[in-house]
Predict the structure.
Amino acid sequence: MKKKLQEEKVRINKYLAMCGVASRRAADQLVLEGKVSVNGRIADEPGFRVDPRNDEVIVDGRLMARPEAKKVYILFNKPRNVITTTHDERDRQQILDFIDVRERVFPVGRLDRKSTGLLLLTNDGTLAHRLMHPSSLVQKEYLAVLDEKFPPSMLQKLTGGMRLKDTGEKVSPCKAKIIDDGMSVLVSIHEGKNHQVRRMFSTLGFEVRRLDRVAYAGLTAGELKRGEWRFLSRKEVEQLYRLCGGQ
């Protein structure tokens, strides 16, 4: 019996590849960097084996869905002060507190606690990996409400590709439009650096008072209110795959 159970387990790199997280070689590197945990314990050996049916595998804070599970795709309109991670030691309100599905889903990317707006959640690791890969150039649109009016003369500095003042990190050119008499700016980026939009405005001397993601990969909230969610249609899922080069 013990031998049979052992045979049902697979190497961690194969499991992560099955989930669409990375190639086996890249998965080995994630393991060596200590970014993979199994049932709450760090898996630090590439030869580590997991039970795909029962083990809980987390990669860099994201809970992996079982590869054989029914694929579900959810659009969620995140309220303020809700955290994107699926585990929190401080027992704060999380996105999964709002979503009632049998399948284990995880967010595609993140929104910081203070930000609101659209998040995609799924258990389709292949699609999630492709959407988050820099080569996909997936557009994310944010409405930033500022502490003071943003002058048209600074649009080129915002959109031309800047270096962030806190780290010197370079961000790619983006699109932006001033609205609401200058107190708000609609910004469209394809990168996903940590707190990127807030840091871009901070570099130019502005504070973002409110930040709302109003579009993700062509998806918009429509009639979804804060805290509400819906399943994506088959057509929407197919569009996402086409967008990131899949079938």
